[in-house]
Design a protein that fits this description.
This protein is an all-alpha fold and 355 residues long. The chain has two domains: 174 residues, Substrate Binding Domain Of Dnak, Chain:A, Domain 2, CATH 1.20.1270; 86 residues, no CATH class. It is 66% helix and 2% strand. The chain has eight helices and two strands, in the order αααααββααα. A hairpin with a 4-residue loop joins strand 1 and strand 2. Helix 3 packs parallel to helix 5 and helix 4 runs antiparallel to helix 5. Keywords: Coiled coil. InterPro entries: AH/BAR_dom_sf, PIL1/LSP1.
Length: 355
């Protein structure tokens, strides 16, 4: 019977969609409605069963059963509230598809308007073709004016269709992503709250007296306070629940690529500019020997300008191997030619004695 009613309902949705189209989208909305209704039916059935258990325990003379079932009834009330919140999230998820359907209908309306404009233009063209043989000049001019207006209306309608389609596709992606994220968070939230509540139920169940191998008159129930405390803790955990507590930590950031290799350059102390080898050779060919000194630049805070434009023009590792760097300047016993490694002003700034 249930399968037959479901088949009839799905057929009704498809028949309803024949006039307006979008049968698949209408089917999604219908099924999401059924999911929410099924969740509410499941919640109602659980609540009814819990109430019947409480009524049964109240008529029982066993104090342990009465206390245990009363505490489980409190947990069931908390679980019912959680399921109601989840049902609201399902309703919001269904609403996202309803808004997507509304956007599709707006696009259909724009396309219908474009088709009407095209038919009107075609009709005026036919009238103009017939009137060209027997109509007056004034009538022909009027038809030409109407034709130009129809063409303009068609162009505007076509532009509106393009804009509607682009806007609808963008909004569709936004709504779909938002809906999926929210309904996923709702499932995660319900699952974790379910774990909290039924872990407390399992803890309470352990306080049911164990009568294996013991005389019934010797069994005593001492878990009244512990069961109440378990319910209180579960309620506090559910109320203080935050979704980010159950989300995974973000993955480690990707390792950045190393910086590009340095290229050799030459520093001009008069202009404060760092030239590359091509610029230096070009200046030397032009005879500007005094403009650029042919000393290889050494990276130093006192030598280089304050900007960072020189970063990509420093010597590479192969260049340093070809022409080894100068010895440390703090060793005054070693002598070297500063003209091959430092400009004059750099040597003075670093306190190196010129030989």
């Amino acid at each position: 019977m249930e399968r037959a009613s479901k088949a009839i309902r799905r057929s009704g949705v498809r028949l309803k969609s024949l006039g307006g189209g979008h049968s698949e989208l209408n089917m999604v909305i219908s099924e999401m409605k059924d999911v929410r209704q099924a969740a509410k039916v499941f919640m109602t059935a659980q609540n009814s069963a819990a109430q019947d258990l409480t009524s049964w325990a109240a008529g029982n003379e066993n104090r342990a059963i009465q206390d245990i079932m009363s505490q489980l009834a409190e947990l069931n009330t908390l679980w019912t509230d959680v399921q109601k919140e989840f049902a609201e999230h399902l309703k919001n998820f269904k609403h996202q598809f309803e808004m997507i359907l509304e956007g599709e209908k707006q696009v259909d309306h724009a396309r219908t308007h474009l088709a009407q404009c095209e038919q009107r233009e075609l009709k005026i063209r036919k009238e103009l073709k017939k009137a060209a043989k027997k109509a007056t000049v004034e009538e022909i001019n009027n038809l030409e004016i109407k034709l130009s207006q129809a063409e303009r209306a068609k162009d505007l309608a076509q532009l509106e269709v393009v804009e509607r389609v682009h806007e609808n596709e963008a909004v569709k992606l936004i709504r779909l992503k938002e809906g999926l994220i929210k309904v996923s968070d709702a499932y995660v939230e319900m699952a974790n709250k379910c774990a909290i509540i039924f872990s407390a139920q399992k803890e309470i169940s352990h306080y049911v007296p164990d009568v294996h191998g013991r005389d019934l008159h010797e069994v005593k129930y001492t878990g009244s306070g512990a069961t109440k405390l378990a319910v209180i803790k579960a309620r506090e955990k559910v109320l203080q629940y935050r979704q980010q507590n159950y989300r995974l930590l973000p993955c480690n950031p990707a390792i950045e690529d190393p910086p590009p290799p340095y290229t050799p350059g030459f520093y001009d102390p008069t202009t404060g500019r760092l030239y590359n080898e091509e610029e230096t050779l070009a200046n030397n060919r032009l005879g500007n020997q005094s403009t650029v000194q042919r000393q290889r630049a050494v990276p130093s805070v006192t030598q280089l300008p304050s900007d960072t434009s020189y970063i990509g023009s420093l010597p590479s590792e192969s260049d340093w191997q070809a022409s080894p760097p100068c010895p440390p300047i703090w060793n005054s016993e070693i002598q070297w030619d500063t003209e091959d490694c430092y400009p004059d002003d750099l040597a003075d700034a670093l306190g190196a004695a010129k030989i």
